[in-house]
Amino acid sequence: MEQWQRKVSRRDALRLLSAAGGLAMVKWSQARASVAEQLPVNQQIEPFTGPGPNPHWNSVGPYVNEPQKAPLILLTDRPVQLETPRSYFRSVLTPNDAFYVRWHLPDIPHRVDLAEWRLKVEGNVDKPQTLSFSDLTEKFKPVSVTAVNQCSGNSRSRFQPRVAGGQWGNGAMGNAVWTGVRLRELLDAAGVKQGSVQVQFQGLETGQGPKGSGSNVFLKSLELSDSALDEAVVAYLMNGEPLPMLNGFPLRLVVPGYFATYWMKCLTWIRVLGTPDENFWMKTGYRVPDTPRGNTTPEEMKAGGVRTVAISRMPVRSFLISPDGSSKIPAGISVTLQGIAFSGYGKIVKVEASEDGAKTWREARLGQDHGAYSFRTWEVVWTPKIAASYTVAVRATDEKGHVQPDEPVWNPGGYLWNRIEKQEIVVGKVSGGASR
Ligand SMILES: Nc1nc2c(c(=O)[nH]1)N[C@H]1C(S)=C(S)[C@@H](COP(=O)(O)O)O[C@H]1N2
Ligand SMILES: [Mo]
Fold it and tell me: Which burial class, exposed, middle or buried, applies to 20 when counting CB atoms under 10 A from its CB (0-12, 13-18, 19+)?
């Protein structure tokens, strides 16, 4: 027996025990009350992703490791489609190894031998070109553009009713500095013939496309008269480095402002066309209703007669990146809301943030201007006074006066989502260390 135990009488021991017990009881009931206060009152179960009131920012697939890539969120594995986690959008440029990946056909290239690789510029031209990689880097002037690559189906999981296709969260986008040769210079070198209408792009992969479509190659075309072509670059560098294989090594088309469907990866053929391209990926795929915001309804689609156009520029969007709502933030202490904004129609001129679910707005401070088609960072300092659950919202305005609406959009392709983003942020009391 220990010394102290022998010194305590039985009565003393009982007294001590009951005191300790009493004390424990008080603490326990207090703790229960304060725990109850902190638990959600609304026990409704919300979906992690999809169109719910507070959907998960990213899709919910597992993280995977692919060659030349950091762990990214797996959407599908054949062909491989990977989504970029939210935290990577804290910087204005998206790292190459974290850049999202999207392919259509299963047989994607895994290596390219630059000694053998050629870019052909053919079709309705006077001087067909066959260019080696060093022809591109040495015979043409290098140009750089910072531009957002966003999949037409980014945020498709928000569509209600649900539509077919990859159920992307918000991470099917990225921003990079693209360096290469102006597309117009290549076309000029080949000498486009009078009466040509479009220019078609083809990559290196093959494989079966959608059943019955006869599409075993991925082909996209743009109108020769389209002003987007003046800004287009065939890029051999991404953020100053060779492109990752999964993002189109050794060369990809970059069409600033346009959805990424035109940004042909592993570009090997440029074909000038005398008649409009009628291939599956132009005539059937990637079309949107010719209506404001590309909006329609399942009923209108069923009734038929919804006129469509090929998808083109990206509508204005903005995102809150940090804080991300994953942990409670303390009341009475200022926090910087940070995020990004962009538009395919030009420069972002205004970003506003709301702490009351898009009722009142405060203008954010914009970060450095990296060009009209780049992400523009924004920040606004917020000091939540009271412990509560807040709905932070963000909306951007571009130089053409487009403002993000607080209305959803619906079309069968699941394209053009740009509704105001909202994020639940829980603010808690700064307690004296009690309930830790
Ligand atoms: N060769 C090739 N290029 C392609 C595609 C493709 O399937 N094959 N998909 C396009 C589409 S729809 C998107 S969203 C972007 C994705 O670019 P990333 O994988 O570099 O992010 O590539 C575009 N370029
Ligand atoms: Mo896409």
Answer: exposed
Domains along the chain? 2-285 (3.90.420.10), 317-435 (2.60.40.650)
- The alpha carbon dihedral of 180, 182, 185, 187 has a sign of positive
- Band (pLDDT 50/70/90 cuts) for residue 31 is low
DSSP 270-289: EEEESS---SHHHHTSSEEE
Q: What is the CA radius of gyration of the chain?
A: 28
pLDDT in tens, 83-139: 999 999 999 999 999 999 999 999 999 999 999 999 999 999 999 999 999 999 999
Residues with CB under 6 Å of ligand 1 are: 99-104, 149, 151, 203, 205, 218, 247-248, 260-261, 263-266
Check: CB of residue 206 under 8 Å from CB of residue 216.
Answer: yes
Q: How far is the CA of 390 from the centre of ligand 1 (A)?
A: 37
Ligand that comes closest to the CA of residue 102: 1
Asked if 398 and 405 count as a contact pair (C-beta separation under 8 A), the reply is: no
Strands (E), 104-245: 119-123, 129-131, 143-150, 173-182, 198-202, 219-223, 233-238
Q: Whose CA is nearest to atom 8 of ligand 1?
A: 103
Sign of CA dihedral 357, 358, 361, 366: positive
Ligand 1 nearest atom to the CA of residue 246, by list position: 19
Please give the distance, rounded to the nearest whole angstrom, from the Cα atom of residue 151 to the centre of ligand 2: 4
- Residue 46 CA to ligand 2 centre (angstroms): 28
> Could you give the residue ranges of the DSSP H alpha helices within 144-212?
183-190
